[in-house]
Amino acid sequence: MFRVTDKALNLQELVDYVTDPQAGAIVTFIGTTRNQNEGRQVLSLDYEAYPEMAEKELKRLGQEAGKRWNIQRMAIVHRVGRVEITEPSVIIAVSAAHRDDAFQACRFAIEEIKKTVPIWKKEVFEGGEVWIGTQSGQRFHQR
Amino acid sequence: MKVKVKLFAILRERAGAGEITKEIGEGSTVIELWEALTRDYPKLASAKIHLLYAVNQSYVTPDHVLRDRDEVVFVPPVSGG
What ipTM was reported for this prediction? Predict the structure, then answer.
């Protein structure tokens, strides 16, 4: 399951998806929206994706993880649109016969998402907004 | 020939458009298309950001030769997660 959605994420749905009789471990990662970044008071994050390609890239990195580690199943769902503080923006679930493979594949997935998957976040903070990864933050007001 | 350009995130905001159909010459490359777009939309190039290039939902190099009706996306730095 590799999906981009504008709906709230549901951890149990991913856990159910990766549940497998041959698995001895399920590892999950939940990325959540933090209220501070680089000294800024963050109000919310707005995520945007190129959905067709993002899902394709998520699937590709899932296949890559399957080549590197002995895993049973993987699921990644990334949210788009406005994500409020404390809410999940991404959930990854991996099942494997042994926990070490599940932990490593899960770590790999979140690191790769941040490098190659066409999803962008705009941080809306007290007094402005910025697309993370660019240097072009536009402040609403100079303070 | 015509290609469809989709713009996302900071590039969409700079251009004020999410999708542009652009007429280009046969044999044009991705980087040539970008140069033509920045002439039409000078704000696209207003601050240097590192771009990746995707054609029909796969990453390509800047010298990739375009074909009629390709879907082209200029990918600003990704920041999912």
Answer: 0.93
